[in-house]
Amino acid sequence: MDADVTDSAGTATEPDTESGGEPSTGAPGPEDNDTEAAVPPADPNPKRHWLRWVALGTSVVILAGAGAGWWFYRKLDGNITTDTTAAAELHTYEKERPTPVALDAQNILLIGSDSRAGEGNSKYGRDDGGSQRSDTTILLHLAADRKSATAMSIPRDLMVEIPSCAKPDGSRSRAQFAQFNWAFEAGGAACAIRTVEKLTDIRVDHHMVIDFSGFTDVVNAVDGVEVCLDEPVKDVQARLELPAGRQTLDGEQALGFVRARHGIGDGSDTQRMDRQQRFLGALFKKVQSNGVLLNPARLYPVLDAATKSLTTDSGLNSLSDLYELARSMRSVPMEKVQFLTVPRQPYSQDANRDELVQPDAKNLFERLREDDPVSVSPGGKDERDAQDGKSEGKSDDSVKNSGNDSDGGSGTPATGSPSPAPTFQGTNAAVGMCG
């Protein structure tokens, strides 16, 4: 019996090396522990692997998006051309410039250049060495509270006092009494600014110059602008032929439409400026729509087109500066984005030129300078009343104020209550081209 016990115990303490079985006692030996440690334990939560890959992929997408966004920003920012010569000229004549009155308001001179120089502009005419004139000039006044914006067109044929200005070749032009658009040709934006300030006594804070190709590209970027025509239009010089009725103009058609002076209306520059104002209002309305501003795929082409053809002063020469300007205008109601032309009439010595109508023009300039409200209407009731009042021996104060003016023409009667805003002939962005 003892032998049987011994044999049984011996068998129990030795592994079966041939069959690879475990000891009958069930207790693991040193070799068994090593084998188990070599195999990695299974993840008790397999979702962790999936979450790690999602986080990694999201990080890559975010970084790629940020990189692309930075590239687009740098490209748009680099598109803008800075006018480095205007600042020096304006600094030289700083003592002659008007003093800012409403510090939070902004007055920006917008100049549409008719230069044929530069990419895409030669097809609009012969490049005669880079000369340019202001085909369209608008003084944009942004109210300090940003509740209104008034764009005042200055006729290119308006007779004004143009100061002596620095020319591109280093010489100086002579001071002269001439039509307004000669100022830009003689001395660029600085000369145009000094001429406007001398004319209006309004301080110009910034300026922008945009050429032909830039205008067409912006219109194309918003998929055109809708207009309504009572009659067909054909103007060979403007390369324009349009049927009557409602239609959407592309960039080339739009440029011809705002520049045409033949084969449309009475051919006057007055009607041309009115047409420009209504078109710009419709364009502003289109750009302000959610379909453009809130859609990056549509907004980028607009920004690219605008910045490529834009020359500005150093205060507006970055995308962030332009964004802040555009952002401040987003709160302006459409009906408060107003367009008008400085009160003018045929020049007494040349019917093909213009001169200011006084005291209406002085009244308008004062309202903008003081950041006082201005209203517009298609008929310009107060402007017509002012003309009637002059013929009856009335003063402009009877039109401007509802009571007695005791503050030297500030627009506030002696009672202390503000006078009604004078109304000038014009339109607003809410009207559009089709009413």
Topology diagram in text:
Blueprint: H1 2-13, H2 30-37, H3 47-79, E1 81-82, H4 84-92, E2 106-113, E3 134-142, E4 149-153, E5 159-162, E6 176-179, H5 182-200, E7 206-210, H6 212-221, E8 225-229, E9 233-235, E10 240-242, E11 245-249, H7 251-259, H8 269-288, H9 290-293, H10 296-308, E12 310-312, H11 319-329, E13 337-341, E14 344-347, E15 350-356, H12 360-369, E16 375-377, H13 381-391, H14 397-400, E17 423-428
Parallel strand pairs: 1-12, 2-7, 4-13, 16-17
Antiparallel strand pairs: 2-3, 3-4, 5-6, 7-12, 8-11, 9-10, 13-17, 14-15
Helix pairs in contact: 3-10, 4-5, 6-7, 6-10, 7-8
Q: What is the overall number of helices?
A: 14
> What portion of residues belong to β-strands?
15-25%
| Rounded Rg | 36 Å
Helix content: 25-40%
Q: Could you tell me the mean pLDDT?
A: 77
Give the uncertain stretches in residue-range form. 1-24, 120-129, 386-417
Name the shape in a single word.
globular
Main beta-sheet strand count, sense and barrel state: 9 strands, mixed
SS-based class: alpha/beta
Distance between the termini: 121 Å
Beta strand count: 17
Give a verbal description of the structure.
- With 435 residues, this protein is α/β, with parallel strands linked by helices.
- 40% of the residues lie in helices and 19% in strands.
- Strands 1-12-7-2-3-4-13-17-16 form a 9-stranded mixed β-sheet, sandwiched between helices. Strands 5-6 form a two-stranded antiparallel sheet. The protein has a two-stranded antiparallel sheet with strand order 8-11.
- 35% of the residues are buried.
- The model is unreliable at 1-24, 120-129 and 386-417 (pLDDT under 50).
